[in-house]
TrEMBL record:
Keywords annotated in UniProt: Signal
Signal peptide: 1-20
Protein name, as recorded: YNCE-like beta-propeller domain-containing protein
InterPro entries: Host-pathogen_enzymatic-act, N2O_reductase_N, WD40/YVTN_repeat-like_dom_sf, YNCE-like_beta-prop, YVTN_b-propeller_repeat
Species annotation: Streptomyces caeni
Length: 392
């Protein structure tokens, strides 16, 4: 990004922005279980948030990630073995890694061009998004066995509404957001979009709306969850913008959007949906992952083989970790104990395990071709909002 353009973006931003699919089980019972774990001080705090009807109560209005602390595993994942699931887009397989030994222990054939491995809302199923295969392959995380694929057109990415009712398919080529029944995957409502390349999203603290990135037209959408309707659209103030992953801040006030062409983060107020400010991180900024204490966010810079560490409270970058021998860190997740950041190496047919305390590379593991939306499972949290593991 040219220095002059960065300066213009920073000045403009400063002036304008001062931001399950499940197999079996009862959705009502699952939502009831999710609302009860963990407990603590949920009762007095939940009244402060006018949440989406049917959504489990907000545990802490000041921290949307309060349920993601180490050890807070849901009863739904009791006895589920810890694994790292890696979709290989060029090999049409999912590599399964044992995080204790750093070894590939299984390779699962799936549909054509798997993009992401997505935990279902109730944490019982892992859905492999076979984009060009027009299907979702279910994997039972208890056994590691794949089930019968479900026909779903253009499933580039997959999310779940916070109330557990709907799956939201990011149909990138079809230019649609497709709301489906979270259990049967039957279409409930198809929402055409005017932008190109819908791919990533995250939900507001109250679950009433979510922000979507449009990769190929450099735009953002704001979608009303309950009405299943696009209520806002804006173009990012950079001519070659290519927005990627989206994450909400712990306090729910801001959304961060990685941009692999602007080489940094767009920061916007979700409620106002005003034009964003900008923070440079590194070449090819791509994936965003929050630490287990909600203090930091890890940003994978795919184009330069680095990971930036962002401090929420101070609104700045504090460290940059560089992978030895380079690499292409892409999508992934944080281990259940918060000590390891797992990222796929998109262009190097490998996976990286990184110590979150030191930035040291712990392992570099060979997998299939084009590894992409890697999922670490299980992770703490009461329910999943989708993607590679966005938990609440």
């Amino acid at each position: 990004m040219h220095p002059t353009i960065i300066a213009r973006v920073l000045v403009a931003g400063a002036a304008l922005a001062v931001l399950a699919g499940c197999t079996g089980g009862s959705p009502h019972r699952d939502r009831a279980l999710a609302s009860k774990t963990p407990v603590g001080r949920a009762e007095p705090q939940q009244r402060a948030v006018h949440a989406l009807p049917g959504m489990p109560p907000v545990l802490d209005p000041k921290d949307v990630y309060a349920a993601d602390r180490p050890g807070l595993l849901s009863p739904a994942v009791k006895d589920v073995p810890s694994r790292v699931y890696v979709p290989n887009t060029n090999s049409d397989t999912v590599s399964v890694i044992d995080p204790e030994t750093y070894e590939v222990i299984d390779t699962i054939p799936v549909g054509h061009q798997p993009q992401h491995v997505v935990p279902s809302w109730d944490l019982k199923t892992l859905w492999v998004n076979n984009d060009l295969g027009n299907s979702l392959t279910p994997i039972d995380p208890r056994t590691g066995e794949a089930g019968t694929p479900v026909a779903v057109h253009d499933p580039y990415n997959l999310y779940f509404t916070p109330d557990g009712r709907h799956a939201v398919v990011m149909a990138s080529k079809d230019r649609q957001l497709v709301f489906r029944d979270a259990h049967t995957m039957k279409v409930v409502k198809t929402v055409p979009v005017s932008c190109y390349g819908v791919n990533h999203a995250d939900f507001s603290l109250d679950g009433r709306y979510f922000i979507v990135s449009c990769e190929f037209s450099g735009e953002l959408l704001k979608v009303d969850t309950e009405r299943m309707k696009v209520v806002g659209r804006q173009r990012l103030p950079f001519h070659d913008a290519m927005p990627q992953d989206v994450k909400v801040s712990p306090d729910g006030k801001r959304f961060y959007v990685a941009d692999m062409m602007a080489n940094g983060l767009w920061v916007l107020d979700g409620a106002r949906f005003a034009p964003p400010s900008f923070i440079p991180t590194g070449k090819g900024a791509h994936g965003l992952y929050v630490s287990r204490d909600s203090r930091e966010m890890y940003i994978s810079n795919r184009g330069e083989g680095t990971i930036s560490v962002f401090d929420f409270a101070h609104n700045r970058l504090t460290r940059t970790w560089r992978l030895p021998d380079g690499g292409s860190p892409d999508m992934g997740g944080v281990s259940a104990d918060g000590r390891v950041l797992w990222l796929s190496g998109r262009y190097h047919s490998e996976v990286y395990a990184i110590d979150t305390r030191t930035g040291e590379q712990l392992a570099r593991i060979k997998v299939g071709g084009g590894p992409h939306g890697l999922a670490v499972f299980p992770q703490p949290g009461r329910y999943s909002l989708g993607h590679t593991g966005v938990f609440r």
